[in-house]
Amino acid sequence: MEWPVSALTASEKYTLITDCVVPRPIAWVSSVDVLGKVNIAPFSYFNIVSSDPLIVSLSVNRRMADNGCCEQKDTALNLLSGGDCVIHIPSHDHAPAVHATGSSTPPSDAQIDALGLQFCAAQAVKTPRIQNCAVALEGRLLQNIEVGNPVVADLILVEIVHIFAADDLMHNGHVHPEPYSINAMKRT
Ligand SMILES: Cc1cc2nc3c(=O)[nH]c(=O)nc-3n(C[C@H](O)[C@H](O)[C@H](O)COP(=O)(O)O)c2cc1C
């Protein structure tokens, strides 16, 4: 099969590219809004940009607001205003919570509480990390690149300043999250 992209609808482009580019690691990102409320959301348009300095990218798409305009998602707003975040690598056990926090209808505070996520202080940033997530990357905003005209995404570069990995992931001096981490995989 071949597809000239110019003939595809938006939803066909989304389906094709996310079917082709697999697996994609999931960044489960905590951030804090201007009032101090903690937010958490998953992002699969996520990867390493540079290892020294240690920089990762998150592409946070703009979303359609009720008034028909594109607006920034809370994670982008919080990172740009607060300047830091924690990127967790979630496990299979977290899959229901990852999907709940990535829904287009954001969960209410009560639903978030029902997910049973416990947060604890991070070491180097003010955003808290999820206590029982075995890998957490604490990062500071480095740069935001507004992508597209009109803007369709905030491509946010985050410099990782502190890394947490649970002791039981350590084998021969290396972190081994693979058997445990979840990815965005091809649909069945
Ligand atoms: C597995 C998964 C991966 C996702 N990846 C992305 C992504 O890479 N970029 C994006 O903009 N939204 C992505 N989403 C959707 C966001 O998580 C969703 O819009 C979320 O509500 C954003 O929350 P926020 O407004 O609190 O930032 C993903 C959702 C799921 C469930």
Explain the overall architecture.
The protein is of the alpha+beta class. It has a single domain (25-184), classed as Electron Transport, Fmn-binding Protein, Chain A (Pnp Oxidase, Chain A), CATH 2.30.110. Helix content is 18%, strand content 39%. It is built from four helices and 15 strands. It has helices spanning 10-20, 74-82, 95-101, 109-114, and strands at 24-25, 27-32, 38-43, 46-51, 54-61, 63-64, 70-71, 84-88, 119-120, 129-130, 135-147, 153-165, 170-171, 174-175, 183-184. The strands form five sheets. The protein has a seven-stranded antiparallel β-sheet. Strands 1-15 form a two-stranded antiparallel ribbon. The longest helix has 11 residues, at 10-20. The mean pLDDT is 92. The site of flavin mononucleotide has 18 residues, from strand 3, strand 5, helix 2 and helix 3. Its cofactor is FMN. Belongs to the flavoredoxin family. It comes from Deefgea tanakiae.
Q: How many domain modules?
A: 1
User: Which structural class matches the secondary elements?
Assistant: alpha+beta
Number of separate strands: 15
Largest sheet: 7 strands, antiparallel
Rounded mean pLDDT is 92
Strand order of the largest sheet: 3-2-8-11-12-5-4
CATH architecture: Roll
Q: What oligomeric assembly is this protein in?
A: single chain
List the bound ligands.
flavin mononucleotide
Strand content: 35-45%
Text of the CATH class: Mainly Beta
Give a quick summary of the entry.
With 188 residues, the chain is of the alpha+beta class. The protein has helices at residues 10-20, 74-82, 95-101, 109-114, and strands spanning 24-25, 27-32, 38-43, 46-51, 54-61, 63-64, 70-71, 84-88, 119-120, 129-130, 135-147, 153-165, 170-171, 174-175, 183-184.
